[in-house]
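Hi team,

Filling in the usual template for the complex we talked about on Friday. All components are listed, including any nucleic acid strands or ligand strings, so the model treats them as one assembly.

SUBMITTER: L.P.
PURPOSE: interface mapping
COMPONENTS: two
RESIDUES: 661
SEQUENCES:
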Amino acid sequence: MRLSDIFGIALSNLYKSKLRTVLTTLAVVIGALLIALMLSVSDGLKSFITNQFGSYFHEQSITVYKGNYSFGGGPQEITENNSGSTEPLTQEDFENIAKIANIEAIYFNPNFNAKSVQAQDSDRLFTASTSCLPLHEQQLRPLSVGIYVDYEGSGQAVISYSYAKVFGWSASEAIGKTITITIGKMNPFSTDSKEYTFTVCGVLDESLAMTSIFLSFPDAADMGRFYADTPNLYTEAMPGYILTIKANSAEDAKDIALDIRTIDSKLNAMTYDDVMIQINSAFNVIQIGLSSFGVIALVVAAIGIINTLIMAIYERTREIGIMKATGATKGDIRLLFTVESAAIGFFGGVIGVGLAMTIGWLLNVIGAQTFLSAFPNFHLSVFTPLVVIGVILLTTIISIMAGIYPSNRAASLDPVEALRYE
Amino acid sequence: MQDQDFIIVNDVKRYYKIGDEIVHALDGVSLKIPSGQFVALLGPSGSGKSTLLNMIGGLDTPNEGHITISGQDLSEASDKVLSSYRNSSVGFVFQAFNLLPSYTAQENVAVPLIFSRMGKKERLERAKDALEAVHMPHRMTHRPNELSGGERQRVSIARALVVNPKIIIADEPTGSLDTKTGNHIMDLLQELNEKKHITLVIATHDLSVAQRVQRIIRLTDGKIVEDYMNDNNQTVGAK
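RESULT (copied from the run log):
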């Protein structure tokens, strides 16, 4: 048989029993729709999360801390390897880390809770959230206007768009304005406080969903020392809780992280890859969980296909007999039924994915105007070619598998009996 | 030139198991049919004539014995060989016509050519010629339910004819038709036998039908009980 005849006959057979074909295909459509939509939504969330983390985490960066973060649970025994909480890094730790090859720079992470921030010519106070980032990390966050903070300089600040907004400035108006940050003491009973005034040199892009004020290291370190009442904090003698390392390259970062972990089992080193692996593995679980509904629907659809094809064999027994008497081989008959089941799966997949894309598009449009308006760059539903092609392929393959038994049954019909069948 | 050993049936046995009982449809049948002969297998239902016909047509294979067509043994042939034999060497005509209801007469006639991998245009052209050969050119676009019994049988003969077969197998070709129409169908088969030298083997339980052919083989209980040349076949059908 020619391929064109096989497809022609298979499709015309499906067309002849329209209602049954439509109902059988509908089950496939529902399965494909569910799988495609769930995958697209989790892809959307995943790309949103990875983009967000991408803007916080540089590929060459390694974050080092000591001890464990504990998140509730039962009592844990404190042992040599489990300190039960994070510990400050020591001079010895710093020196050991500094000996590792291929490190471009080591940065301290000044950390304190500021009391408030206030714009010039205003008496309104706002909570202050500050960070001190080296230039290459700052550069991951695009600026709307101005320049980044000079890491080694003093008296400058870059503010996020959210601060400009609450201070009542447009991004360009903010440049050159001053802000004042008030720092108290770590000891909550102390009433001491100190004011630091900065000139705004840049405003972050509106698309960054963050609230932050970037400061230079000398300023931030000074504020941190005042806060903790510890003058030699953020020096080699007293590195603080977190160190950020810049490796010579992204490849080196992985090796350095390994080396750090071998210095002391309490030392933790996290690279960009580690973060991404954690995000991806979490999303894989979510994707499998969400798609399982669609898979269940597809299994039901497969049973429907088997049923439809077996019914078709009963209806077309005589026709199969005629085909065999006029020269059709077993393979011809088998192929004919296989193509019919494949066609149900293929068209069901195409329609299902098409509907899913339409619903996904509607979700994005409606979401952008309502519940997702705060995240202009976030698309809830993202269809990658892998999802589109993969789902159609999946429904087609499942349908072909469902067609194996009916196809073989049709192919092995005895032509003499088939011709006699009433 | 006539091939005396065109169809050789050699001690063929075919039995079916029905429950614990073994039914012998054919019980040691041997015969030879030369090419171009018009043969009738005559017998009551259950005598084994359809079983023998199906074996000559390659639709069924014997449990014991051999069937050879033009030197090719069909008894142990594969599905592929048998399919190709049915496709290119044999044409079937059935009592119940066995036409595909959703196809037109022309499309029905063209069905065997689908399995010869012929292109659609050429298929329909050949089907048209075959329908002309059975005097049905005016009914090409009609579906089977728009045709009379006789017309349907002509379409099914055209389908048998379209592959230029060496043999036409007809199982009770007049069984569903009235006498007059049956006679016309027999006229047509006779014409094909004489003009195209196609070997024709028909099964019938009707002696008047059998008497229109060259040779009559009478079967009872799966055995040949009589096999003779019918010398007056030319005169009987001339009504």
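MY TAKE: The longest strand of chain A covers residues 194-204. The mean pLDDT of chain A is 90.

Thanks, L.
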